[in-house]
Amino acid sequence: MRKDIILALLLSACAFLASSCSLDEKANGFMSTENFYQTENDALSGLMYAYAAIPSYKNFSASYLYTLCCPTEEFTLKSDAGSGQHDLDQLRQDGMTNKETKDVFLIAYLVAGRANVLIENIPNIVMEEKLKNQMLGEAYFLRAYSYFNLVRLFGSVPLRLESLKDSENIGAPLASIDDIYMKCIIPDLKKAEELMDLEKRRGRVNKVGAQG
User: Fold this and answer.
1) What is the distance of C-alpha 193 from the center of its chain?
2) Helix, strand or coil for residue 109?
3) pLDDT-derived band of residue 103, with 50, 70 and 90 as boundaries?
4) For 42-68, what is each residue's pLDDT tens digit?
5) How confident is the model at residue 152 (pLDDT cuts 50, 70, 90)?
6) Please, are residues 51 and 32 in contact by the beta-carbon 8 Å criterion?
7) Interatomic CA distance for residues 128 and 42, integer angstroms
8) Is the C-alpha dihedral spanning 152, 113, 160, 28 positive or negative?
């Protein structure tokens, strides 16, 4: 088949696709709870999903330690360390562009966001009450823990106590440090202490963690 015929067929196909398809963009990043958070296993899976972000490479394994220790004398950087680490070492950091602090900031909100979803949905699940209370208490703890780290590292930050349901509510204003403690950290830890038990569960928090 001649090349000009092939080209004509391709152009016709492209024109058909362009005329028959809408190019309007829609947000695809919002979780639906219609078929989830219906059972005890759903609640446990959601809780493990919230915990899963905490020990990630970008959090306690690397970026969190760099953010805390590079500005001090605890770390001596090797010659091929990243620019973000050198900036922290020289007390020259920009929270908008520094990879280390940016990762710590994002992961804290990832955990808090997943905790918000749990807090909203676990109460509606039919399950044994003691177990429901324990998992709900862990969710409150995880949210408080995230904002406790955020406020100590960054000061005033956006405070979001509800899950993000649509793109119109993505932005949030800065909350004062006092508001973050009084509206989230302290009441969440008190709820967590009230709801959780003293049983030890590998890799999970209990009442003593909230009291601490």
Assistant:
1) 22
2) helix
3) confident
4) 999 999 999 998 876 555 667 878 888
5) very high
6) no
7) 14
8) positive
Please provide the size of the chain in residues. 212
Distance in angstroms (rounded) separating the CA atoms of residues 144 and 27:
28
Quote the DSSP letter at residue 172: -
Distances in Å between the alpha carbon of 34 and those of 26, 111, 124? 19, 22, 12
Q: pLDDT band at residue 11, thresholds of 50, 70 and 90? A: very low
- What pLDDT does 101 receive? 86
Give the type of residue at 181: Y
Residue found under tokens 């995230």: 146
Spell out the SS3 assignment of 49-73. HHHHCCCCCCCCCCHHHHHHHCCCC
